[in-house]
Specification:
The protein contains 17 helices and twelve strands. By secondary structure, it is α/β, with parallel strands linked by helices. It folds into two domains: about 10-200 and about 335-395, Rossmann fold (3-Layer(aba) Sandwich); about 240-315.
């Protein structure tokens, strides 16, 4: 079998919540040994919802698959010293979103490891605190999300900026590690969550549109902005999302619904060209109005059979419960069953990157399960020495 892409790379992670743990897990699933170090007793996300019936956090375990878990007392100088020694004894790479801790700063740790790679995630570039939901609010997305005519902001449940930030952090860490291989130089990498949101908003054209367009971006509900896409109800109470991005998509949709001649006549009447994406969007209401009866008159199975083999992009709306109970997860090679400590058997995803050596799902450790093993392997501490640290509350050891 091929070796994993990041075999031999060790990363220390001092983190909580989403972005930094996701960045670390991304590296772990590509073969890096990621050692998550938490304060004794756990960080603020150890018991975050959702919870399993046992009380174990499904959130924490999902974001820490394949890592090692070490617990040390950050308030005690000896606990902080051990973090520094672990960093110096490993590959000298730290991923963290902990702020306001001078002992964990680049300057303090570079004194122990001059070629240190230090990736620091923070809220704003100037050091102000932020989380995904506050960054989302100030970037503008809640005011273009939701149905037409609604007043006030509409938040969404996906922490998109945390996710993007975690992936950017993994990329930045690997870029710094590659430069160190070439030059021997370490790096201080700072990544602000607010900058990630602004960067993505800029890359997708939202910021440019706000600067050059006299008309603000409207709310369009479930319509696809700038193209033809919307949800439709079926005769059996299901809903499907249908998207026609290209000329071929729309031609196939018109043919399968029997509306090709109707749409051609509508084009002549409106002086429009539905081969153009912008024209389909401009006249989306009337096009959707003509499509609605076709979907409403057919059950989901009939819709599925009719659209099969066409280029039309579509999918049934499913709840998470629908997805988990469908049997599709067990058939998908992305997922495999793991025995998760504190929870039991679960289908869990590995890396979505399909490449030689990319790892499948590995359970998250029980909290503090690897403290003794990591302190012994990296620092050469004996079992008696680790027990002594545990008795004094410096180290948390799973019992």
């Amino acid at each position: 079998m091929s070796s994993a892409p990041l075999d031999g790379l060790t990363v220390l992670e001092v983190s909580s919540f989403v972005a930094a743990p996701l960045g670390g897990m991304t590296l772990a699933q590509l073969g890096a040994e990621v050692i998550r170090i938490d304060p004794v007793g756990g960080g603020p996300d150890l018991h975050r919802w959702p919870l399993a019936p046992s009380g174990t956090s499904l959130y924490w375990t999902a974001l820490n698959k394949g890592k090692r878990s070490v617990a040390l007392d950050f308030r005690d100088p000896e606990g902080r010293r051990l973090v520094g020694e672990l960093l110096a004894a490993s590959d000298g790479i730290l991923l963290t979103n902990a702020t306001g801790r001078d002992w964990l700063s680049y300057d303090a740790l570079a004194a122990l490891r001059p070629d240190l790679i230090h990736v620091q995630i923070q809220g704003h570039r100037d050091g102000r605190a932020a989380v995904d939901y506050t960054v989302n609010a100030e970037t503008g997305f809640p005011l273009v999300t939701g149905p037409e005519g609604i007043e006030g902001p509409v938040n969404h449940v996906l922490p998109a900026w945390d996710v993007a930030c975690g992936l950017y952090a993994a990329v930045g860490l690997l870029a710094a590690e590659r430069r160190r291989q070439r030059t021997g130089q370490g790096s201080a990498v700072t990544l602000a969550l607010a900058d990630v949101a602004l960067a993505v908003a800029g890359h997708l054209g939202f910021l440019a549109e706000a600067q050059v367009s006299p008309v603000p971006r409207p709310r369009v509900g479930n319509h696809l902005f700038g193209g033809l896409g919307r949800d439709f109800a079926t005769a059996d109470g299901e809903r499907v999302m249908v998207v026609a991005l290209t000329r071929r998509h729309f031609a196939d949709l018109a043919a399968v619904t029997g509306l090709a001649e109707t749409f051609a006549g509508l084009e002549r009447l409106l002086g429009a060209d539905f081969a153009q994406e912008g024209e389909r969007y401009r006249h989306r209401q009337v096009i959707a109005g003509l499509l609605e009866p076709w979907f409403a008159g057919r059950a989901l199975a009939e819709v599925s059979a009719a659209l099969a083999g066409t280029s039309v992009l579509w999918s049934r709306y499913r709840s998470f419960a629908d997805l988990a109970g469908s049997g599709d997860l067990a058939k998908n090679p992305l997922l495999r069953e793991i025995g998760q400590p504190g929870i039991g058997p679960l289908l869990a995803p590995g890396s979505p990157l399909v490449m030689d050596g990319a790892g499948g799902a590995v359970p998250a450790p029980a909290f503090g399960a690897d403290t003794e093993r990591v302190l012994a392997s990296l620092l050469g501490l004996t079992a008696a020495e680790v027990r002594g640290l545990a008795e004094r509350g410096i180290a948390g050891v799973e019992r």
